[in-house]
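Deliverable D4.2, example record:
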Amino acid sequence: MSDGTLIRAAGCVLWRRSPGAYGLEIALVHRPKYDDWSHPKGKLKRGEEAPAAAVREVAEETGMDCRLGTELSTVYYEANGGPKEVRYWAAEACGGEFVPNDEVDRVLWLPPAEARDRLTQDRDRLLVDALMEALYPA
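Output generated by the structure prediction step:
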């Protein structure tokens, strides 16, 4: 149970270049604890800045190094009975290798439309749209 203190977290919509649709794929992580598909994210450590936490969480959850791009949006929701704030960035994967762990047992690389369909939460689907707008402005 939460004491009502805001939980601060950060994450990324991780992407890489590919020959398919839009020339890119988006990484989604499967968390067995929740049996859901989401973007890599996690809580900030004491004294840690959000951009550093976003890069760290990508490495921990996907095994990938990444280059942060545009900040996409901040998402607010209730988690474990308290308020949670997650700041997200676009991030291009720069190499690495996924190794399954207790927190994340699978990573999928999917074209944007398929990634959008696979995500469990609507709020995560909106982040795919935000990534596409950031990479391909009208």
